[in-house]
Amino acid sequence: MIRAVPSLHFHRVSRVFSGNVRAVSDVSFSVPAGTLTAVIGPSGCGKTTLLRIAAGLDHATDGSVAFVQSADRMGASESFSAADLSHRFLGRGSVSVCFQDARLLPWRTVFDNVALPLELSGVARSERIERADAVIAAAGLRDARERLPAQLSGGMRMRVALARTLVTRPEVLLLDEPCSSVDEFTRMQLDHEIRRVWQVSGATTLLVTHSVSEAVWLADQIVVMSAGAVQEIRPVSLPIGLRDRASAAFLLEVEMVMRSLAVAAGVTTG
Amino acid sequence: MKPSSFKFLTRIFEPLLAVVAILLFWQIAVVVSGVEAYLLPAPSAILHTMWDARDRLMSATIRTGAAATIGFLIAATIGILAGSVIAAIPFLRRSLYPLATILQMVPLIAVAPLLVIWIGFGLPTAIAAAAIVALFPVIAATIDGQVSVDPGLRELFALHGASSWTRWRKLDFPASLPAIATGLRIAAGLAVIGAIVGEFVSGYGGDDAPLGIVIMSAMRESRTDLVFAAVGLSAVVGFALFGAVSCLAWLLVRRWHASAVNSVESRV
Q: Does a structural domain hold residue B48?
């Protein structure tokens, strides 16, 4: 991808909810420009809260989230916090979020759902049709273009939601457990779709998941979280093209992440 | 014949069968017991009266139907607008939403005599009475529908920087249509009751008397058959209005809402 996308930085981020519930405490890590980082951990470990803070849907009670445009293209490095996000970033449609419940409007067809973000940001009708149809075709949804969400399977709905995140040509993708509500087989198909979406957009991507094999298959870097804190940050060294889920190298990598999770949970693996 | 249209026919046929059975039982009971006609006329006698007084009853039905329909339309328009405004403004929502729910339970029809004082005798009072009783279910349903829009979808709109007007047009209003449809169906039935009671207190006799007045004057003349005929026709008015609103509601949400979608073979 030639275009410059920003990197994403979490700096000592904490989030304390009312009643002194610490959802996230002192989390720091970076997602290098154009790469995919998976945040993994058990339910309630704060991974979704982290994503929501990055999306500007929630705020950090301490620390900061910054998007940094790389210096070589901009002349000087430009950074802004999550607080500016809605003005400086989301307004341009540069950050796209995909939620675990597909969040499609039930009265709109697949096409009208995919085109919604363009509609809301005032893109002209002819361009809307062109861009929405392009992502629909690329996602293999052309036959479902005029269908309503109620007429689609859970996996299909998720594909529509993923296509919708692409329609704004995002520079940053935030994916919140996009596969959590589908079966194992559909998950593997969706993983291919997520990889395609990430590669096509070239976006800096944060993927929140609770599937270790999904994280190892997709990510450049895995952040293991436990009880609101970072347990381990491990780069995934296997080349993207060589990640065969049945290969020994892949399974070893999965095992290493499992161990890290087990240590975090205070249990032993086998 | 497609299975769905066959199902539709049986759905109509079975209640119809029940009605015929009840009328038959009624007819036989009256004939066998020899009860006086001024206490309980036989269905055949009521049908006979309907035919004899057809001109008067037809014009009465049209007048009452018009009052109920106009009152309903006023209630629907004001109710949806007011409900949307109340739902959209937090202060109004906190202060007026409980009120709209409580006012539904007040027998507003008791204010009908007040309407005579303010508006006078005749059709406008019947319309006002119909509108007043039909209004609050619409307001309550509209607010209900709009405050219970999926917060996840609201977040989606917030992410894309949608203005509140845009969000209302593209999310809140369409999402609340099923709730509004339910409110409108309740309002349709109430509008007919409101119109008749409005006529009770404000109507006057003559050739163009509405059903409410036909019922009152028939009562005074002990024409029980005519009372039954007029009551039957007001039920027809209520059924027609309810049916029209239900059809409209179904057309609006049939493509996507569970209440309609589940009955069609659209799940793949």
A: no
CA distance B81 to B173: 11
pLDDT tens-place string over residues A32-64:
998 999 999 888 888 899 999 999 888 888 888
Predicted pLDDT of residue A82: 47
> Would the CB atoms of A90 and B261 count as touching at under 8 Å?
no
pLDDT over 70 for what percent of chain B?
Answer: 94
Question: Count of domains in chain B?
Answer: 1
In angstroms, the CA B80 to CA B139 distance is 6
What pLDDT, on a 0 to 100 scale, did the predictor assign at position B67? 94
Note the Cα A177 to chain centre separation in Å. 8
- Strand locations in chain A (E): 7-17, 21-31, 36-40, 62-69, 78-81, 95-98, 172-176, 204-209, 221-226, 229-235
Give B256's contacts in chain A (Cβ within 8 Å). 106-107, 148-150
Q: What number of CA atoms fall less than 13 Å from residue A209's CA on the CB side?
A: 27
The three-point CA angle A85-A90-A92 to 5° equals 125
Residues of chain A with pLDDT under 70: 1-2, 70-93, 268-270
Amino acid at A122: G
Q: Do B160 and A97 touch (CB under 8 A)?
A: no
B162-173 pLDDT, tens digit per residue, is: 888 999 999 999
Question: In this predicted structure, what is the pLDDT of residue B258?
Answer: 64
Q: Does position B237 have pLDDT exceeding 90, yes or no?
A: yes
The parent domain of residue B205 ranges over: 58-257
Determine the pLDDT at residue A97.
92
Q: Is A120 in contact with B158 (Cβ distance < 8 A)? A: no
Is the distance from CB of B119 to CB of B71 less than 8 angstroms? Answer: no
Report the C-alpha gap between B176 and B50 in whole angstroms. 42
Domain ranges of chain A: 1-94+170-194+208-270, 104-169
pTM of the model: 0.80
Architecture of domain A1-94+170-194+208-270: 3-Layer(aba) Sandwich (3.40)
* Cβ contact A80:A51 at 8 Å: no
SS3 string, B123-154, reads HHHHHHHHHHHHHHHHHHHHHHHHHCCCHHHH
Instruction: Say which residue, B111 or B86, is predicted with more confidence.
Output: B86
Write out residues 136-165 of A within 8 Å (CB-CB) of B.
Answer: 148-153
- Rounded Cα distance between A88 and A67, Å, is 10
Strand duo A204-209 + A221-226: pairing = unpaired
